[in-house]
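Backbone-to-sequence.
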């Protein structure tokens, strides 16, 4: 069963406040290119970090819209044999990742 990924404005602000100058909130919202720009320019020398105070809700809304569109496409494409194999492989990988993580703890 697929679940839709929802990006939160609260989490984005929590990431923005201490790590905004590194662009972590931009990576969280799926803006990798601008996240890298923020990371290497220290939030556009602090100016971009401050401007993002006002842009975070829009970044989150755009990320949620992209996630919803991708979710619908993936959900519609997962049918028949290919969907069954992909679902089984995803469950197997998730199970192994979780068990490996728990073994490390």
């Amino acid at each position: 069963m697929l679940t839709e990924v929802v990006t939160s404005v609260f989490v984005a602000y929590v990431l923005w406040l201490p790590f905004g100058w590194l662009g972590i909130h931009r990576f969280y919202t799926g803006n990798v290119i601008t996240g890298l720009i923020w990371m290497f320019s220290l939030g556009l020398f602090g100016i971009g970090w401050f401007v993002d105070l006002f842009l975070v809700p829009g970044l989150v809304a755009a990320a949620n819209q992209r996630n919803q569109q991708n979710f619908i496409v993936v959900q519609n494409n997962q049918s028949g044999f290919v969907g069954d194999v992909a679902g089984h492989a995803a469950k197997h990988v998730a199970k192994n990742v979780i068990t490996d993580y728990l073994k490390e703890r």
